[in-house]
Amino acid sequence: xxxxxxxxxxxxxxxxxxxxxxxxxxxxxxxxxxxxxxxxxxxxxxxxxxxxxxxxxxxxxxxxxxxxxxxxxxxxxxxxxxxxxxxxxxxxxxxxxxxxxxxxxxxxxxxxxxxxxxxxxxxxxxxxxxxxxxxxxxxxxxxxxxxxxxxxxxxxxxxxxxxxxxxxxxxxxxxxxxxxxxxxxxxxxxxxxxxxxxxxxxxxxxxxxxxxxxxxxxxxxxxxxxxxxxxxxxxxxxxxxxxxxxxxxxxxxxxxxxxxxxxxxxxxxxxxxxxxx
Length: 277
Prior knowledge:
68% of the residues lie in helices and 6% in strands.
């Protein structure tokens, strides 16, 4: 059995991967807050931005952590199409979860369903990424730790969606993103501790790309996307700053409130306030 190293570069990859998860979570939450304060096409666009930011942050966390992964006795390569598929799956299922809670009429039911779908999608991304590994040997998983990693993914996803619905202030978003980053990182390393590799020594060349050939440039590109998105969100004025009424404070709602006010009695002038002494 080959010895697995989960931190070949020391604390660099765990800390950096956690930071990427936190950035993605913070962006996803802020964009969802913007979406819930908007309507129509604007709400859809903010939800799409939230899905891409949160999904990208989760995926980047996983593969930045994988930069530090190694197995004694065999080189490690990555299957490029499967790795890209894991990214597509991640962003798609996160989008489904966010749209479920952002556009659903029954929030509690949508939260439970969206959390389940998103959590299973995050776990699928993780294990698709692991299936993309190419090495001389056979990979095995401990069922108990795999089940625990999936449960953590579902709980983390549900907590993220709940936070998107209920947390509004920047300080609360910061705290929530730190907690979510820790949850996503815990899911990743729980799944990694479930891995066992039986190494079969061989001199044959492995298919696929090395981490530095493929994973590192892609992670840098996606990390740059996250920071550009952060700048875009920070520079885009909120509905409050533009003076736009919130969805529940539209002109139609104000007119309906005015319609409920008692009308003056016909034939009598409306009462006017007495001037202050």
